[in-house]
Amino acid sequence: LIGFILNTRFKVDLAIVRILGVLQRFAIVYGVIATIEVLCSRPEQYIMSTKDQPSMSTVAVKSRALQRIRTLFCDITNFPVQWLINIALAAIWVLVVYLVPYENCPAGYLGPGGLDENGKYENCTGGITGYIDRVIFTDKHLYQYPTCQAVYGCNISFDPENLFGAMPTIFLAYLGVQAGRILVMYQNHADRLARLFTWSILTTMIGVGLTAGTLDSGPMPLNKNIWTLSFSFFTAGLAFAGFALMYIFIDLLKWWNATPFQYPGANSILIYVTHLVFASFFPVQWLVVNTHAAHLAMALWGCIFWIIISYILFKKRMFLVL
């Protein structure tokens, strides 16, 4: 609802207002993940037990190797239903994207359309993900200024927070659940870090492998606008590594307490909304020379400005949470 309201700040005509957006993507992803966890998780799944289970054979129960494996991977094996659901959602995305053609567009096309490939797929912007949005929401309710316009001259609407792209995003969010699950189930620093770094290496390798080691091509290119599954794996790898490093600096070595990032983190939804509302107002933004350096400096100042605001709110003990 907040995301939809923000979309009306320049277009109050509900007949043409954009429906999708960043917060809407969060709502879908968190809603699905939370539903899966609430319906499928049980307290006993978080217990790392190697005790005998009556349903198992005597030989299997007494096998120390099997017990060790169960303990080592219980953060995965204890949650088969959750993993199957999330893998199924990711598989559906892959099958639809790579096997379903539409209109004059081939299955598996993930390009920007327009002038891409000499205009061969002019009206195929975003592939099947863009087509699904245009069928469900119609052109007038989608983002009208996609990034492909400036480079490829694409002339149809495409929403970077497209509905179908939520499925790979859900898988990425579930990998975040896995990171939290590691902290809950393993209390030893070494166990936690070993798993976080292992997941980082594994997901990064899968992400790079899906692109065949290329930046913007391969079987499944890294594409944030479409939110390809390779993008989910690659960003998950970076996130696992970043999380592990922060864990070392903050929790293990206690060299840092996350300042100043803890301040906007404590008021994330408020800072997100206000930064959009006041993005074009002084002292957040003003006219500067049109160079990369000037715009970079402006962006850095905007980040610092909102950290200052969030620091003031933090000190005054003012928090807006949902």
UniProtKB/TrEMBL annotation:
The chain crosses the membrane at residues 83-100, 163-184, 196-215, 227-249, 269-288, 294-314. Keywords: Membrane, Transmembrane, Transmembrane helix. It comes from the Eukaryota. This is Heparan-alpha-glucosaminide N-acetyltransferase.
